[in-house]
UniProtKB/TrEMBL annotation:
It comes from the Bacteria. It comes from Pseudomonas typographi. InterPro entries: Cytochrome_c-type_DH (IPR051459). This is Uncharacterized protein. The chain crosses the membrane at residues 94-118. Keywords: Membrane, Transmembrane, Transmembrane helix.
Amino acid sequence: MRDGIRANGANHYPATPYTAYRGLPGSNIQALHTYFTHGVSAVDEPVARTQLAFAFNQRWLIKGWNLLFLKGEPPPITPLAEDKVARGRYLVDTLGHCGLCYTPCNLVAVLALLMLALSRRTRAR
């Protein structure tokens, strides 16, 4: 969940906000897992097969993405109940992961997002 690796060892795509989830304490990850496995009813619908254009359909390339964007150790977790600013930062940056979409990114990320948007546009025609 924090490192972008699925249970079977495959990489998650960066659309899964694992770079933000690095700040989740283990107890919150366990609470989320419990909620989604026991508190939310399953929907009996087939899952559509992912159809990404090349090179986005190559999960092994995510290792390069992680080298660029998955930096160091997870941030230290501060006692949130005592510090309102830290709690707000945690809610926005970690659980809400707002900064992943709403902050400037470097040229590599911009080009990757542009290529993804163009591949979706071409496929929609």
